[in-house]
Structures
1.
Amino acid sequence: MIQKGQKRVSILKAAEALARGEIVGMPTETVYGLAADADNQAAVAEIFRIKRRPADHPLIVHVLGVDLVPEFARDVPRYARRLLDVFWPGPLTVILPRRFGRGDAAAGGQDSIGLRSPSHPVSRALMTACGELGVVGLAAPSANQFGRVSPTTAQHVVDEFGDDLLVLNGGACPVGIESSIIDCTREAPVLLRPGGLSREQLAAVAGRPILLPADAKGCAPRASGTLASHYAPSARVHLMDGAALQDALSSLSTRAGHIGVWSRALRVPTSSFLLFRPMPVDPQTAARELFAALRDFDAHRVNEIWVETPPPDSGWDGVRDRLKRAAA
Ligand code: TXA
Ligand code: MG
């Protein structure tokens, strides 16, 4: 693994590897990605292979900025342009009509393409170096095996794919859950995956309501993050409201097994069966810690993970969404 402190060299090396058609683990502000040249069919196919990802789940293409959107997209609705102007670089992915002949492999044969401009300084330095080598877009899904918990540190990526993969270390991801995805190929914008940006924030900038997939006609769940079960640790996840969780904890002595608990303000009995991790009280910090907490519970080989249902307000949509799918 490339270590911190060698950043100048390592970014150039990583860019050269990408230009040669290799795969590189890349930090972004949301989660770590598994990057390849979006226009290199063989490299993109290798991502699908090592992730064991079904071929019909397209990859997001990462670009430096709005000026590169026309390379991959043939049309940008005005509301989408407003979203890009305000939220890029950042945790927002837009699905746009794809320019014929570009990003074919990444798009998994669809006539649309997902585009995102990450703000993480290491991914930006990497994309700049790639641009100089003629690589315009980096296809990058989250750097985890299909269906598993997304990685938020370089070590998580090594844990998933082993030491042979080149991984740039950019520290712990500050957002911690994946980007919000908005489908801009329909008449109205549709939120395919909630992320760090709330629906209200997005609607205010788009200047129109952002629909949910259930409200949009003919909106098939093409995003894997929208499958009912996803983001799953090895241990079974149970979501419970505060009262139910408190009851379950009170009767714990009768249970066998080793249980991880992620909750906000409960009285948690000290017990050798229990591994307690506090759920942060604000949604941004909770998002940042969520995937690391799930991985930590797995590393401690707990049998079950009991999680307190997050509050109902929209700021928690991203975290609630990931937890529901982890528990499904
Ligand atoms: O924050 C993120 O978005 C991270 C970082 C690495 O950028 N990436 C990420 O990629 O979460 P991935 O592949 O794990 O999730 C992207 C989702 C997938 O569920 C995929 O099916 C969906 O976006 N997607 C990509 N292109 C699409 C398209 N053209 N139409 C519909 N869904 C698309
Ligand atoms: Mg993913």
2.
Amino acid sequence: MNKDINGSRKDSKVAVSAPFMWISETHTPNDVYYHGVNRVIHSERTQYQQMVIADVGAYGRALFLDGCLQTSEGDEAFYHEAIVHAPSVARGSPPTSVLVLGGGDGGTAREVLRWKSVTSVVNVEIDRAVVDACRQHLPALSAGAFDDPRVHLVFDDAKRYLQDCSQRFDVIVCDLTDPIEYGPSAALFTLDFFHLLREHLTPTGAISFQSGTLSLPENDVNIARIYHTLQQVFDSVHIMQIFAPKYGTPLALSLATVQPLSLPSAEDVDISFRNNLHGENHVLDGRAFHALFAIPKCVSDILRRDRPIITDQDQIKLSGHGIMQ
Ligand code: SPD
């Protein structure tokens, strides 16, 4: 018997044999995270990216896109609870309508549906192959969310979808891949796109935005530019930090709102989660919600410095990505 990271007992054994291959993920030119792979479950060159679903040992199965770890069964709750519940609880009233951009593994839609108030979810994912493979090989991630009648799953480019859409949403969750050069998300980390997001929010709306690795050597160019660009468009912008162990580094999520935002107290967050969510969180309670906003001082200092905003002509382009060996 071993204990899984959520604290429950389970009978399955941790990796019994040495990995037969490695996926290396470059964090900086000098820092690489090797993911040992016990078995490749699915591998496919989709229309948009290289996709691998693999058994990575103690963390169960994981999804890699263009060599970057997106999610693992063992620690996905650290990411999905934060990216969904932080904007939903912070805006003050439980959301009714939610837009998910990306999120092809279904973990985000699953968490959105835990809000009893939610009556409609539009999930726009560019890559149908990711949804199909995750439904088949990582079914616990979506846990049936894509079959829920409240969920409308659309296969489209997020920018094109929003340009043609007149609906407004209480919460928009941008569960995107990193802005890797030539990757499908690079054009979504821009001022124009942030304007589009704001146009599709209700007056009390909030967005959460996957904002990349909090990598000390790169904060100055990545998270600082995302922060300053969001600030051009939204009244309140907060940077949150999560640590899901399988990413190997902390990850930044941005929370931006149409109106100025004062964070609810930890007690009010606990009350809201208790009253408004189906089931219990694994990771977030009121104190853990507040901890998301406790970013290191050196990062706050960097955010205070003026940085160039991100435009279509001057995008963030991460070259770091994974290699299978
Ligand atoms: N650097 C990895 C960023 C991962 C962002 N996407 C996660 C997808 C989980 N639904």
